[in-house]
Write a structure and sequence with these properties.
TIM Barrel; 9-stranded parallel beta sheet; about 15% strand; globular
């Protein structure tokens, strides 16, 4: 059983829902990313989603795009992201890590070599934003050979036929996109999200995580009433950037802004089942 499946089984057994924070590796700083990941786990994260910086992150809104730009300016590469995961694993062998990125750097790395490097570093799953399920055979074979979960996005506009294709290929969990558009955009319509979750759940027994548009404890609580997990990314990155742009350079203060928000997300999610 993968770390991802084991975590969701454990949460299900205790009647809890997962909190999944997303951060961009190397933002605000490469040297601080590992400590940030550990702080997020201590603050209630059940699974960690680590973004691989890319020059054209098409699915991301302006907040995360700027995070990618800062990380690239800080010299981050795919290999350095893997090194960050490996360093995190020296102290935490339990918390699942999902890498989220784009196909081009992975293709340059080579699917088999990439999958092996991920397994060696301690990665548990992969979201490749711009690789459709109809084109994943090669990378999926490489991931399966080392026991990594291939995780897919399903949006409100995904046709039924493609939903069926995705749930047949997916492992670990399904990432349900809450709003139309890029990360951090749009109004969070909790009724529409509940319908999307219901539509997906009728086709798979995999856990369903909802992301894009969760900004605080209140929105997290609303989503957690129907989903198995809540993903928060733009709001965390925005909080850290607000502190950094104010002239604050202390890692404690910058990370503290993300920790405080995640704690409120955790409280909101927990209150959904109380």
């Amino acid at each position: 059983m993968s770390r991802i499946s084991g975590t969701f089984d454990e949460l299900r057994g205790s009647g809890r829902k997962a909190v999944i924070p997303y951060v961009v590796a190397g933002d605000p700083s490469p040297e601080g990313t590992v400590s940030l990941l550990h702080e997020l786990v201590k603050s209630g994260a059940d699974v960690l989603e680590v973004g691989v910086p890319f020059s054209d992150p098409m699915a991301e809104g302006p907040v995360i795009q700027k995070g990618h730009e800062r990380a690239l300016a800080n010299g981050m590469t795919l290999r350095k992201v893997l090194s960050i995961v490996a360093e995190f694993r020296r102290q935490d062998a339990k918390t699942p890590i999902v890498m989220m990125g784009y196909a081009n750097p992975i293709e340059r790395f080579g699917y088999d070599a990439f999958a092996s490097a991920c397994a060696e570093a301690g990665v548990d799953g992969l979201i490749t934003v711009d690789l459709p399920p109809e084109e994943v055979d090669a990378i999926d074979a490489a991931l399966q050979s080392v026991g990594l979960d291939n995780i897919f996005l399903i949006s409100p506009t995904t046709p039924e036929a493609r939903v069926r294709t995705i749930v047949e290929r997916a492992r670990g969990f399904i990432y349900c996109v809450a709003v139309k558009g890029v990360t951090g955009s749009g109004h969070l319509d909790t009724v529409a999200v509940a319908e999307s979750v219901k539509r997906i759940r009728s086709k798979t027994s995999l856990p369903i995580a909802v992301g894009f548009g969760i900004k605080d404890g209140e929105s997290a609580k609303a989503i957690a009433t129907t989903a198995d997990a809540v993903v928060v990314g733009s709001a965390l990155i925005d909080k850290m950037e607000q502190v950094a742009s104010s002239g604050e350079t202390s890692q404690i203060q910058i990370h503290g802004a993300a920790v405080k928000l995640l704690q409120s997300i955790r409280a909101g999610v927990d209150s959904s089942s109380s």
